[in-house]
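ok, trying the design again with the full structure, not the truncated one.
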């Protein structure tokens, strides 16, 4: 089966790959990086910080928020809630979707 991709689609996919490669080498994240890591919107990340539901740092006198990548990943893993009587394997995507549903957001298809 032949796949036809236009230049914009290829550039968009390459940009997506590049962002994830850059993200893998970082230890300190900004809001956009944290959203990308968790698969949430930037607004959702701000909502989580507003309620202090997610670990973050805000240097004195600055508006910028920072996130420790290891702490955010540990936080995401702690959101795991097993479902009774279900034989489904729990993936990171399923865990993030559970967090999204708790926040009143739509689950994301992967």
């Amino acid at each position: 089966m032949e796949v036809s991709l236009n230049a914009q689609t290829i550039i968009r996919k390459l940009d997506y790959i590049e962002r994830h490669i850059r993200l893998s080498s970082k230890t300190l994240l900004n809001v956009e990086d944290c959203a990308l890591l968790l698969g949430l919107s930037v607004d959702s990340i701000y909502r989580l910080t507003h309620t202090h539901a997610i670990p973050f740092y805000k240097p004195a006198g600055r508006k910028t928020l920072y996130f420790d990548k290891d702490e955010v990943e540990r936080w995401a893993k702690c959101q795991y809630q097993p479902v009774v009587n279900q034989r489904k394997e729990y993936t990171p995507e399923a865990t993030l979707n559970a967090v999204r549903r708790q926040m009143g957001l739509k689950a994301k298809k992967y």
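Keeping the full-length input from now on. The longest helix spans residues 7-25.
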